[in-house]
Amino acid sequence: MHLEVSNPKLSPTNPPRRLLLGPGPQNAHPRVHSAMALPQVGHMDPGFMFIMEETKSLLKYVWQTSNRFTIPVSGTGSAAWEAAIANLTEPGDVHLICVNGYFGERALDMHSRYGAVIRKISKPDGEVFALDDIRAGIQEHKPKLVWLCHAETSTGTLQPMDGVGDLCRENNCLLLLDTVTSICGSPIYLDKWKIDAAYAGGQKCMGCPPGVSCLSFNDRAISKLEKRNSPVASWYLDLTMIKKYLDVPTGAVRTYHHTAPISMIYAMRESLQLVSEEGLEAAWARHKDVASLLYKKLSEMEGFEMHVKDQAIRNPALTTVRVPTDVPPDQLIKYVREKYEIEIGGGLGSLKDKIIRIGLMGYNARPDNVLLVIAAIKEAVDAIRGKTTTV
Amino acid sequence: MHLEVSNPKLSPTNPPRRLLLGPGPQNAHPRVHSAMALPQVGHMDPGFMFIMEETKSLLKYVWQTSNRFTIPVSGTGSAAWEAAIANLTEPGDVHLICVNGYFGERALDMHSRYGAVIRKISKPDGEVFALDDIRAGIQEHKPKLVWLCHAETSTGTLQPMDGVGDLCRENNCLLLLDTVTSICGSPIYLDKWKIDAAYAGGQKCMGCPPGVSCLSFNDRAISKLEKRNSPVASWYLDLTMIKKYLDVPTGAVRTYHHTAPISMIYAMRESLQLVSEEGLEAAWARHKDVASLLYKKLSEMEGFEMHVKDQAIRNPALTTVRVPTDVPPDQLIKYVREKYEIEIGGGLGSLKDKIIRIGLMGYNARPDNVLLVIAAIKEAVDAIRGKTTTV
Description:
By secondary structure, chain A is of the alpha/beta class. Chain A has helices spanning 30-36, 46-63, 77-88, 102-113, 131-141, 164-170, 219-226, 239-246, 262-278, 280-299, 329-340, 367-390, and strands spanning 19-20, 69-73, 94-99, 117-122, 145-149, 151-152, 157-158, 174-178, 197-201, 213-217, 305-306, 318-322, 342-343, 345-346, 355-359. Chains A and B meet through helix 1, helix 2, helix 3, helix 4 and helix 9 of A and helix 1, helix 2, helix 3, helix 4 and helix 9 of B.
């Protein structure tokens, strides 16, 4: 048979150059790119399993957990989230979803797909939950699982965690924490905070390209998994099977489940290695210091207001900003991308066309990037206003 | 709070060197590694969407399909498979699974997770289905979907496809084809063969590292998706949502779903580019020629027998071999890995400890690799026999 679909005859892959100062992904450190180019090995190779174990130990460090079951997940952050839900939900379980932004809204959908009975408590975009809010929600709905977002990527908040873990234990429910945009950028103590399950993406403050994520279950979560009455609804994300590949006693036989994303594991391993070399507390401090510089510069610009008023609940890695009313955010974003190849983010969900989002994460959390993005934004505002007046 | 989980203080990422001549992954072409190190861009960036569209057009070429909905999937091959099932299954649908190896057995499990009523027809490991077998299965079970494996990675067979598509259309059922280990290595004509849905991994003959996969739906499959009564059971793999991100008319607004694995898309784009530069028919011919050389060399070695007797149904990319009875396959595999850093595969499922699997795929499908692996196997056999006689 001859070919009916013709050869498209394209040129080699050639992406544009961008400085990524939006909500993620971020530019990775050159060493991470080099790690991705290291030789492929097989997913059952003892040499690869050694790297996998190293990656697990680094994940435990940055999450501050001794959870044995702390693993990379073969997909982007949403896959790790879905893995947590698929494995910790049995049809009919009540889940209390704490909604204070776009990702909370998404949780309502995602958790319901696995048969959870959804209950929610809500806070306006840009606010966080008080312990009493969560207590009232738990007492009213008696959930089996509470989903809480540590860092809402759509709003820029950072949820205070004091007392939440104890509250969930007292009420015999699991606490599932989204740490996608806080891991490696802000203090997280999974064990001290008594988090039962957490997940994260690699492409934010960890400094890894997107394509791999991570998950940690403590004994309470593992117990829920082991006592399931129904099979896990997803085969790809079935942790009872993945456990036999990724979490076996030293020297025991590992069972093939799916082909791991080798190069992305290298990338995550090397991103975490960079955090380890810097020191976790130093990485947290760097994100905070760079954010402070950004806040200072923004405070000097007329018409720019912090969307999250209270600095104590701001995620230093991701700053949400209301811009002057005569400056459409999409025009500003387009200007800095087209003129300077800088990506900053727009609003998501209810904040669409209302804010810009400036991410200073991982390798990109540096003071030079603050100077640059502020200068570019200033020029964009002038240009947009100039254009407006000449129309 | 101070850190309780200490810094593991490891060295930089350092995988072993391996020549991967097993069932996959394979070593990628150096240009593919370089592509992974290209600058990160955002997943909503117009520059990235351009690369995504290029990747889609290259996928159409290598699958020989004009299916508009031909996309990369953000996970390994099993994720693309699960995406096909999750989107094409409604609870209670009868699925006819054609089982002739380990992956057929796996299908029974995977499809059942999505509520399919499982019916199966079986052939022994190393055989393929005759059209009459499939016809009888369809007439008996009246399925809504037939799952068939084009290239069974556990056994090394290649399923003849003549008439299967017509048969499914006549009986008003969808045909889902697994092309994980045949894409880019053996002729596939999705359109001419009337395949309704197909999926593949990138890490076999396409020459991409694992971590990204692909999926194609024709209009019949899209129609099934659009007429669903129940929501897609997986959020991460929900193609009704992914469609709004990946498959929109030129110039239309794309809707964020999840963060795409940017570097892995570059890798897939560049792997496909290499196939395009070589020419698809030349790539098919190269895999076939290299396999013929391997068959010839193996035929000269006493006690080595082809597991798939009939050359017409052998997958050239993956050769399954029964080794002399006094040579345990696991010892042979260990010897060539430890002495020469060459990976060859063992048997899976019912073929465990019975065969070895030699993959010559993508960049590794070269005659020099045949000479090398044959020489290494010969030495391993001598060494194992030497050891045995001295015990």
